[in-house]
Design goal:
Helix content: 10-25%
Structural class: alpha+beta
Radius of gyration: 23 Å
Protein name: Aspartic proteinase
Keywords: Aspartyl protease, Disulfide bond, Glycoprotein, Hydrolase, Protease, Signal, Vacuole, Zymogen
Strand content: 25-35%
Largest sheet: 6 strands, mixed, barrel
Family: Belongs to the peptidase A1 family.
Distance between the termini: 26 Å
Main location: other
Organism: Dipteronia dyeriana
Number of strands: 30
Length: 514
């Protein structure tokens, strides 16, 4: 994360599943871990706010960037299947210790440390809601004790280093240094579907200079090729969320050949990218080149404000908060005015119309979140629902206007204008779900090849039926030279293009996902 996800953001994340069933194809030498899928329901939507990163992140998804050829089918590749949570979090299962203690983690190419909650985490609520590592229960545990802290864009953890064996798929990585988190403040990790983070970035950005787990996989001879690859299943309704393959690639999940570009700066998996096109027309800003990062721990796509503004204008995107505000005014404005005129208690109105519950003092969220973005969660008061918060604002505005003896039409027009002025946290935007067919394709130039995303691919749909919301997969992130301009290619991009991280040749490859 480094994006929480990547959030929020984000940023939407990555995940393995509990209750694995292992399948082995002796002809391939690949081990697959079968996963059961959690059924998504409205009450769990708050947990989807992570790109996030992301997620976590800005998770609009840019959580961690505080910035402060074809490899073929390997016979010694280990496959870990991933769970897809509403196209925003991907997570998988690992085991730490002997016998293995199970944890669900995000496999994050945008950070380099492994951390999980510790049994010595006493004061953070998030630790009580997730699996905790118990060193006394492991015969292979070795004490380290060095303190550690990781600050993400939308969350932070602190604790201390320990050493133990880590089981990933069918592989056992011995003497792996990892962080036992004793503090997980805030809401980011409280509502997360994952327990911890497994970083797959370079040691250059590893906190405490800890050797990343992937390095130890290679150094201990556990994989025949120093390569790992991702396939994300973007169909949230299917049982299989995707897979990460250590030691090679799965040819069943891509078409044609990969286009490779060299890693230009170790730390993140960073490379040079060319022009960004809207409906085949240049945006100009990256025509002479931009840096880009392939980040599995970030839900969305983030880039320079100048281009994101052009993209969001072309797709008709508006601020999420403004859209929610106008929805409340349109659906409930007249009702709220009538209730205020009837002398109903203002602080109870939003609970009476069903947008909040009432705790005796004020309205509170019923746990139904309106967008897949952890930054919206933070901006709307943590666990308090976005619509609940907006309703409370609307009540205050309407109440003030009624005191000025204005007509109903003038009052509603005025409040709608106020909705337009509401800032969207970290720049996430919504689009009209009915307009997908008329939206342009957005293309990225990598290694001289055009990688195109259709509206159906770069728009996240949240909810079903009449309450469906469509969220733009693009978020603004401005990084000045020499590090920028910089793009973060998160799960929105990697979901459409199978991605190979070739550590041996220091390159990243993309091919159409199958």
């Amino acid at each position: 994360m480094g994006t929480i996800f990547k959030s929020i953001t984000a940023s939407v994340f990555l995940c393995l599943f509990l209750f694995p069933v292992v399948f082995c194809n002796p002809n391939e030498g690949l081990y697959r871990i079968g996963l059961k899928k959690r059924k998504f329901d409205q009450s769990n939507r708050v947990a989807a706010q992570l790109d996030s990163k992301e997620g976590e992140a800005y998770r609009t998804s840019i959580r961690k960037y505080h910035l402060r050829g074809n490899l073929g089918d390997s016979e010694d590749a280990d496959i870990v299947e991933l769970k897809n949570y509403m196209d925003a979090q991907y997570f998988g299962e690992i085991g730490i210790g002997t016998p293995p203690q199970k944890f669900t983690v995000i496999f994050d190419t945008g950070s380099s440390n492994l951390w999980v909650p510790s049994s010595k985490c006493y004061l953070s609520i998030a630790c009580f809601l997730h699996s905790k590592y118990k060193s006394k229960s492991s015969s292979t545990y070795k004490k380290n004790g060095k303190s550690a802290a990781i600050h993400y864009g939308t969350g932070a953890i602190s604790g201390f280093f320990s050493e133990d064996h880590v089981k990933v798929g069918d592989l056992i990585v011995e003497h792996q240094e990892f962080i036992e988190a004793t503090k997980e403040p805030g809401l980011t990790f409280l509502v997360a579907k994952f327990d911890g983070i497994l970083g797959l970035g370079f040691q250059e950005i590893s906190v405490g200079n800890a050797v990343p787990l992937w390095y130890n996989m290679v150094n201990q001879g556990l994989v025949s090729k120093p390569v790992f690859s991702f396939w994300f299943n973007r169909n949230a309704d299917e049982e299989e969320g995707g897979e990460i393959v250590f030691g090679g690639v799965d040819p069943n999940h891509y078409k044609g050949e990969h286009t490779y570009v060299p890693v230009t700066q170790k730390g993140y998996w960073q490379f040079n990218m060319g022009d960004v096109l809207i409906d085949g027309k240049t945006t100009g800003f990256c025509a002479s080149g931009c840096a880009a990062i392939a980040d599995s721990g970030t839900s969305l796509l983030a880039g320079p404000t100048s281009i994101i503004t052009e993209v969001n204008h072309a797709i008709g995107a508006t601020g999420v908060v403004s859209q929610e505000c106008k929805a409340v005014v349109s659906q409930y404005g007249e009702t709220i005015i009538s209730m205020l005129l009837a002398k109903d208690e203002p602080k109870k109105i939003c609970s009476q119309i069903g947008l909040c519950t009432f705790d005796g003092n004020r309205g509170v969220s019923m746990g139904i979140e309106s967008v897949v973005n952890e930054n919206t969660q933070r901006a709307s008061g943590g666990l308090r629902n976005g619509m609940c918060s907006t309703c409370e604002l609307t009540v205050v505005w309407l109440q003030n206007q009624l005191k000025q003896n204005k007509t109903q039409d003038l009052i509603l027009d005025y409040v709608n204008d106020l909705c337009d002025r509401l800032p969207s946290p970290m720049g996430e935007s919504a689009v009209d779900c009915n307009n997908l067919a008329s939206m342009p394709n957005i293309s990225f130039t990598i290694g001289g090849k055009i990688f195109e995303l259709t509206p159906e691919q770069y728009v996240l749909k949240v909810g079903e039926g009449d309450v469906t919301q469509c969220i733009s997969g693009f978020s603004a992130l401005d990084v000045p030279p020499p590090r920028g301009p910089l793009w973060i290619l998160g799960d929105v991009f990697m979901g459409q293009f199978h991605t190979v991280f070739d550590y041996g040749n220091m390159r990243v490859g993309f091919a159409e996902a199958a």
